[in-house]
Amino acid sequence: MNVDILFTHYNYIVVALLLTIGAYMLVETPNLVKKVIGMNVFQSGIFLFFITSAYRTGGSPPIVGHGGASTTYVSPLPHVLILTAIVVGVSLTAVALALIVRIYTEYGTLDERVLREVRADE
Amino acid sequence: MNELLPLLVAIPLVGAVASITLGSWSDRLAWPVTFLTMLVHVGLATAVASTVYRGGTPLATAVGGFTPPFGIELVVDGLNAAILVLVSAVAVGVLVYARRAGPHSVAFHTGYLLLVAGLSGMTITGDMFNLYVFLEITGLAAYALVATGDDGRAAVGALKYLLVGTVGASLFLIGIGYAFVATGTLNMADLAEKLATADPTLVGASFALVVTGLAVKTALFPLHTWQPEAYASAPDSVSGLIAALVSTVSAYALARVTFSVYTVDFLTSSAFAQEFLLGLAGISIVAGSLLAVMQTEIKRMLAYSSVSQFGLVVAGVAIANEAAVTGSLIHLVGHAVMKGGLFLAAGALAVVAGARTVEDYDGLGARAPLLSAAFAVLSLSMVGIPPAVGFVGKWYIALGAIQAESWPIAVVILVSTLLTLAYFLRLVERMYFRTSSDDVTSSTGTGATAVADGGDDTDDGLTRPSAGMVAVVVVAALLAVGLGPLVSTFEPLLEPTLETLLQL
């Protein structure tokens, strides 16, 4: 087991942590709002994965006229992709929260376990 | 024709904006605007498909003039032209049904067009990240449509769908990320070239994540948990539309990604890829059928039946020979017509008799002869009685399994047919060979269940199904029977595409 990789690739470890914490929250908490927060943490892990994979030491921004012929330019594509993915994530959160508001007005609870009991009685 | 491809996505988007602006001015305009948009869409989709099949070569266009592989490419070939027409035609049919059956809200019509835009985009895109974006647009529209039911149950079903669906789409996105890190490109054709020489571990991980993500969206067992509740709690028109199209297009995307991005070479040479897909499909076929047999609520039963049928489709993709892939495409189209028709028929029967559970179907054959007959025809087609399209699809997939000497799958297909017979035949038997126990007190007898599942809330006080609703169901039944014999004329049209996809 190469321990060095833990220190040189610590950003990927944060990605893995965010993904697992997010997935765990999504599954484990009975609170619907916290489930949505878990979903957001999970997605942040993915965003970080794309951004961190695009990092180049000594790279310069890909703007015409910047740097000389020997400069390493950073690919702008991952950042653009993640901007799109963030927009998608915000829309998903908005729809999820709207649904939760409806569930709360209907059943008066945000707790999944209580919700299950109430609906079983219907 | 090439430059018209972006319109397939743009027209429903513009229509969605038009329906919400005109609809906020007068509620009654929402349906006509939506219908008009869909008519234009179906015309364009048919024109594109006929050009592709007559020309024998794919249509492609670079969006915004950015040349691929840097820009986004839209591609229509023999595989997705059929899906494109299916999406458009089914959407028109369900819209006719929804004219009276509801929901009547402006939001429903806007969501409807957004869903069509997302599905069309998923169908024609040739770019992986673009596929993710359209997957999420489709998802968002589908969550909102499920929630157009008036009661709390629909909201709970939609939230569950959203949470599970988002995780699925996110896994798909990580998979794209792995492929992107390995190759630096997102264009499907370019990826196919560069993945062949990329690090096999990275490609394998990417394949597993992409397939798992799409399997969640297709609702394969054990990733189907969102699906029965979402289908059962949604209004009948929405269940019909989503059951017919959303999983179908996701399954198409799975086939597209497998053949056009990872390629058949990878599928057969990689240590786990084919086994992974076959295992997922086999478990799905058996578990879906078994769960369907156990259900008492009609819409839940139909939902679990979809889990099993999509297992069949994915099995065809995994076997990856000419017969099996032809079978998968036929079964995708056939299943969409049959399952959409069954959901709409179930909705119409619920209007006639409040029938929402298996017990309620006693003696329905006498009370609603035409609808019951259509339901019975669609059921038998789903079981796979020749010459219906359900038989042809299964036949090709089974044939492909035997040619590939994939015996376990061949056996599973046979067993699943028997199980399908078990859960559909009991309904047909109840409809025609039993008399209703509560003919006189039908409204009070079934009232409790109808309120509990919220079905009647969306019926808007309809006491009998409109002519349009019945007509759509009957057309679906006729198509289910009529499409079967047509397959032999369709098959040669598909051949050039299959040769490219399967690298024959």
TrEMBL record, chain A:
Main location class: membrane
Membrane topology classification: Multi-pass membrane protein
GO cellular component: membrane
Transmembrane segments: 6-27, 39-57, 77-101
Superkingdom, taxonomy of origin: Archaea
Keyword annotations: Membrane, Transmembrane, Transmembrane helix
Keyword set includes Transmembrane helix: yes
Record keyword Transmembrane helix present: yes
Subcellular location field: Membrane
PANTHER family associated with the record: ANTIPORTER SUBUNIT MNHC2-RELATED, MULTISUBUNIT SODIUM_HYDROGEN ANTIPORTER, MNHC SUBUNIT
Protein name per its UniProtKB record: Monovalent cation/H+ antiporter subunit C
Automatic annotation (TrEMBL), chain B:
Comp. bias intervals (Low complexity): 438-453
Compartment list: Cell membrane
One MF term in the entry's GO annotations: NADH dehydrogenase (ubiquinone) activity
Region described as Disordered: 438-458
PANTHER family referenced in this protein's UniProt entry, alphabetically: NA(+)_H(+) ANTIPORTER SUBUNIT D1 (PTHR42703:SF1), NADH DEHYDROGENASE (PTHR42703)
UniProt cross-references to InterPro entries, sorted A to Z: CPA3_Na-H_Antiporter_D (IPR050586), NADH_UbQ_OxRdtase (IPR003918), ND/Mrp_TM (IPR001750)
Record organism: Halogranum rubrum
Signal peptide span: none
Pfam families noted in UniProt: Proton_antipo_M (PF00361)
Main location: membrane
Protein topology in the membrane: Multi-pass membrane protein
Membrane-crossing residue ranges in chain numbering: 29-49, 78-98, 105-125, 131-149, 161-181, 201-220, 241-264, 276-294, 301-320, 340-358, 370-397, 409-428, 467-487
Domain named NADH:quinone oxidoreductase/Mrp antiporter transmembrane: residues: 126-420
Sorted UniProt keywords: Cell membrane, Membrane, Transmembrane, Transmembrane helix
Gene Ontology CC terms: plasma membrane
Biological process (GO), any one: ATP synthesis coupled electron transport
Protein's name in the database: Multisubunit sodium/proton antiporter, MrpD subunit (TC 2.A.63.1)
Superkingdom of the organism of origin: Archaea
